[in-house]
Amino acid sequence: MEVYYTIEKKAVAEFKDRGSKFLAFAFPVKSTEQVKECLQEVKKEHPKATHHCYAYRLGTDGLQYRAVDDGEPSGSAGKPILGQIDSKQLTDVLVIVVRYFGGTLLGVPGLINAYKMSCALVLQLIPAVQKNVEARYQLVFDYTILNDVMIVVKQNNCTVLNQDIQLFCSMEIGIPKSSLDLCLLRLKDIYNLEVKAM
Predict the structure, then answer these.
(1) Average pLDDT of the residues in 139-160
(2) Nearest to 163 by CA among 181, 184, 177, 146
(3) 179 and 113 share one domain
(4) Most buried one in 32, 36, 51, 151, CB count within 10 A?
(5) What pLDDT, in 10s, does the model give residues 21-47?
(6) Do 150 and 119 share a structural domain?
(7) Is residue 86 located within the same domain as residue 182?
(8) What whole-number distance in Å separates Cα of residue 26 and Cα of residue 9?
């Protein structure tokens, strides 16, 4: 897999069913720490909501995921939310659906539909973005060859994740898997550049 799909901005959508109000929040996230921060933010904004159900999928392999029903009947909230994230083949995405109970019980099929629809609505508002799956490398070099290094980094669409530019420089980059071999060849061609996989 050389590319993956994600979202780059937040969005909010609202869905109503028999008096119950569902607010869906979509967030781009990279870690479980970010998931916790977003959840706290939404709970602060909506302290009176009956439920804060959510699901997320993380990582380019998509192996890190979770679906939480937060007091709703098992499988009626988190799973339908995760199902919508997966149907759009997204990763690094968190969707939180906040429910304000309207007095009428929706039943499990009704809940599944409401959480699914809320998530589908919010994900329709944000364009999915294609990103390159990247391999992380560290570059260590002398300032005099910074220009040569940057030319290769830019031409191969690498992401600069971290850099410390002084007399002796170090840089962490993400190299797209699709151009990894070629990029490494070109970097290794630069005299006195140290390249280490992370």
Answers:
(1) 96
(2) 146
(3) no
(4) 51
(5) 999 999 999 999 999 999 999 999 999
(6) no
(7) no
(8) 8
- Which domain range does residue 137 map to? 133-197
Half-sphere exposure of 10 (CA within 13 A, CB side): 10
Residue 50: which of 97, 100, 106, 16 has the closest Cα? 100
Report yes or no: 186 and 156 within 8 Å, Cβ to Cβ: yes
Q: For tokens 């009428």, what's the residue?
A: 104
CA distance 166 to 168: 5
Rounded CA-CA distance 153/64 in Å is 29
Q: How far is CA 23 from CA 67, 71, 75, 92, in A?
A: 17, 16, 19, 20
- Using CA atoms, how far residue 97 sits from 23, 26, 93, 159, in Å, is 5, 9, 13, 33
CA angle centred on 161, ends 62 and 94, rounded to 5°:
35
Q: Which amino acid is at 129?
A: V
Report d(CA 14, CA 6) in Å as an integer. 21
Where does 29-69 show beta strands of DSSP type E?
Answer: 51-58, 64-68
Q: 163-176: per-residue pLDDT in tens?
A: 999 999 999 999 99
First to last CA, the chain: 19
Q: How confident is the model at residue 62 (pLDDT cuts 50, 70, 90)?
A: confident
Q: What CA–CA distance (Å, rounded) separates 102 from 147?
A: 62
Given the structure tokens 């993380």, which residue do they identify?
58
Query: What is the domain count for the chain?
Result: 2
Residue 77, pLDDT score: 98
